[in-house]
């Protein structure tokens, strides 16, 4: 499989404010970051920018409970898939990464898109089942709860297999044990 990397997507103030169980997810992401650093697994951070989330604004910042280290890469994106029109692939290549351990927000968009974006690019991607979250899309017409959306992506990730890459699911406690 090669080098693993922890990819932390969109754990930003505004995004987490509208997400279910955000305090627990932030705490789990903090545990993942600590465990990854202790295991010498690189951590790569992703921050989203769009018309409603202005780069540099207070809402755009990574939540105050988490702090990227000076040597850790920060990727800036404007699309749901963290690979699209970013330098993420180059950052992963420089780290020799072949496996992504994925956590963050939003399950319904950026986590799902980045999961499949990684798989389609040949990375093995392990989704941390208790370290991703989403807002309530029923306000936009979805017929499922955020919890259902999280459960469905966890199930799909566990059964995703392609010739060059495989999806998997783990928990915060097991990710770097």
Overview of the molecule:
- The structure is a single chain.
- By secondary structure, the chain is α/β, with parallel strands linked by helices.
- Helices cover 34% and strands 23% of the residues.
- The chain contains six helices and six strands.
- It has helices spanning 13-17, 22-38, 88-95, 107-120, 146-158, 172-175; strands at residues 3-9, 43-48, 73-77, 97-105, 124-133, 167-170.
- It has a six-stranded parallel sheet with strand order 3-2-1-4-5-6.
- Strand 5, helix 5 (146-158) and strand 6 form a beta-alpha-beta unit.
- Helix 4 packs parallel to helix 5.
- The mean pLDDT is 95.
Produce the secondary structure layout.
Layout: E1 3-9, H1 13-17, H2 22-38, E2 43-48, E3 73-77, H3 88-95, E4 97-105, H4 107-120, E5 124-133, H5 146-158, E6 167-170, H6 172-175
Parallel strand pairs: 1-2, 1-4, 2-3, 4-5, 5-6
Q: What is the straight-line distance between the termini?
A: 17 Å
State Rg. 15 Å
Q: Trace the largest sheet across and list its strands.
A: 3-2-1-4-5-6
Provide the residue-averaged pLDDT.
Answer: 95
What order do the helices and strands follow? EHHEEHEHEHEH
Give structural attributes.
177 residues, alpha/beta, six-stranded parallel sheet, 6 helices
How is this structure best summarized?
The protein has 6 helices and 6 strands.
């Amino acid at each position: 499989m090669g080098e693993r990397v922890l990819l932390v997507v969109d754990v930003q103030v505004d995004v987490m404010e509208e997400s279910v169980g955000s305090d627990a997810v932030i705490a789990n992401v903090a545990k993942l970051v600590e465990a990854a650093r202790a295991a010498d697994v690189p951590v790569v951070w992703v921050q989203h920018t769009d018309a409603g989330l202005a780069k540099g604004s207070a809402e755009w910042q990574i939540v105050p409970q988490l702090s990227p280290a000076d040597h850790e890469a920060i990727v800036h994106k404007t699309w749901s898939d963290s690979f699209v029109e970013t330098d993420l692939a180059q950052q992963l290549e420089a780290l020799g990464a072949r496996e992504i351990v994925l956590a963050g927000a939003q399950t319904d968009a950026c986590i799902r898109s980045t999961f499949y974006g990684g798989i389609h690019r040949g990375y093995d991607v392990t989704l941390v089942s208790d370290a991703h979250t989403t807002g309530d899309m029923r306000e936009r017409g979805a017929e499922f709860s955020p919890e259902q959306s999280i459960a469905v992506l966890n199930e799909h990730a566990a059964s995703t297999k392609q010739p060059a890459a495989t999806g998997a699911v783990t928990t915060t406690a097991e990710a770097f044990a």
